[in-house]
Amino acid sequence: MNMNRKWIACICLAFLLAVTGCSKEKEKADPEEQTDRKIVKAEAMQEAGDIYPLTGKEATGDTHHRAVAVMVNNHPDARPQSGLQKADIVYEMLAEGEITRFLAVYQSEFPDMVGPVRSARDYYIRLAKGLDSLFICHGYSPEAKALLDQGYVDHLNGLFYDGTLFKRDKTRKAPHNSYITFNHIEEGANEKHYNMASPPKPFLFMDRQETTRIEGESGNEATVEYGNRLFDVHYAYDESIGRYTRSTAGEQMKDRDSGNPVYIDNIIVLDAPHAVTDSKGRRDIDLTGGGEAYLLQKGKWNRIQWRYLDQVLTFQKDGEALKLVPGKTWVNIVPDKNGLDAVVNIM
C-alpha cells in the first residue's frame, strides 16, 4: 500500500513538472501574450487607482482624469516656457524649417499655467488622439485645420478664445505670448461638454528593484541635433538624483514661473521620414513605419526599436515590450535623412 502511494506521488510530481515546463516554454515562445498580460495588469492597477498611467508613479490624486495635450512653442522668443516640468510625456518634432515644437501631455499633474501655446500640425494631433487627449493649440496648418474641422479630436483652439480662455502676455511679442491656465482648460471642456474622465491606456513601467538593474552602455550625456544650433538639445544625467536635465542652445531648461529645472527619467530619440510640404517649410512626418531608436535611463543607453500602434508610439527591444522608469518621459523625433548616428551623440 505504501509503495502504491509513493508511485502515485511520483506520477503527480512528474505531471506538475511537465506542466510547469510547458508553461515556461510557452512564455518564451509567446512574448506578445506575455506583454498583453503585463498591460492587463497595468490597467487593473490603474483601475484600482494605484498608479498614474503615463508616469507609473504611485497615485496621490485622481488617476481617471483625461489627458490634456498642449502645443507648446519652442522658439527662442518663447523661452523659458511655463508648465513643461509637470508634463508626463513630451514629444519634440520639427514644425517648420529647423524650428521644433513640443506636444506636452499632462495627466498625473497640471501646472497653473502652460505656454506659450502655438499652432497645430497634423502629426501632433494624431499623437494626442492616440492618448485620447483633449488637444490644446492656438492656430493650425492646413492639414491640421482639416482634422480639427472634421471633429477628429476634442480640442480648444486659441483662435476662437483669444482674450477669453487664452490670455496674451504683454511682456512678450505675438505669436510667442499666448498662455492658458488649467482652470480655463476645464472651463472650456465643460462649455464644449467634453468628457474629462477618460484616462489613457497605461504604459509599462519598472518596479523599484528593476530600476536598479538596468543594463546597457554607460553614457551620462547625450546631444540631439535638429540642424539648427538654436534647437539642438543636450541631456545630462545627474547621478545624485537619478534623473536627467535638459539644455537647448546652451541654456538649461527651467520653468519660467518657478525657476525649477525640468527633470526627466526616460529619454527616447527616434528618426522618421520628414518631407517639406510648402514654401513656409512646414513638414510632413511619417510615423507609421517604425524603426530604430535610442533609450536613455539611469545613465545607461540601449539601441531599441519603435512602432506606431493605434497612433501611440511603442517601444521594444528584440521583440519584447520595454518598460519605462517611473516618472517623466521625453521623446525626440528627428529626420531620418542621415540616420540616428549622424544626429545623436551619447557620451
Order of helices and strands: HHEEEEHEHEEEHHEEEEEEEEEEEEEEHE
Using the alpha-carbon principal axes, give the shape: globular
Uncertain stretches of 5 or more adjacent residues? 1-32
Computed over alpha carbons, the radius of gyration is: 23 Å
Mean pLDDT: 89
Question: What fraction, in percent, of the residue positions are helical?
Answer: 10-25%
Largest sheet: 12 strands, mixed
State the secondary-structure class: alpha+beta
Can you characterise this structure?
With 347 residues, the protein is an alpha+beta fold. It is 23% helix and 31% strand. The strands form 4 sheets. Strands 1, 2, 3, 5, 6, 9, 15, 18, 19, 20, 21 and 22 form a 12-stranded mixed beta sheet that branches. Strands 10, 11, 12, 13, 14 and 23 form a 6-stranded antiparallel beta sheet that branches. A hairpin with a 2-residue loop joins strand 12 (243-248) and strand 13. The radius of gyration is 23 Å and the shape is globular. Residues 1-32 have low confidence and may be disordered.
